[in-house]
Amino acid sequence: MKKVFLLLTVIFFSACNNYKIEDLYGTWVFDNIELTFNKDKTMERRIGAEEIKGRYNTFGNSLELIGPDNKVIGSVAIKSLINDTLILDLIQFKSTPITFTRKKTE
Question: How far is residue 23 from each of residues 27, 29, 37, 69, 103, measured CA to CA in Å?
């Protein structure tokens, strides 16, 4: 019974995302914020001069950002990921969608 529940949970969360994980890879910018998501599930978050390296987990349309001390530093919802536009919802007390654009590689 536990295996069936686990299987249904995995199917549910994989069916709920509105993007391909490969489309998330790269660096995304908004004002003085940069988020980098790598294929190996590592990430970097830069806000101004502050930089945190860690990893991330995906759960359907949610991203969980984990710092170097294995503590969750934030959770965001992916509202949309189309081409070079990523809209994240910084859910705290209310919905706060922010639009990021993919940083061009030189």
Answer: 11, 15, 10, 27, 13
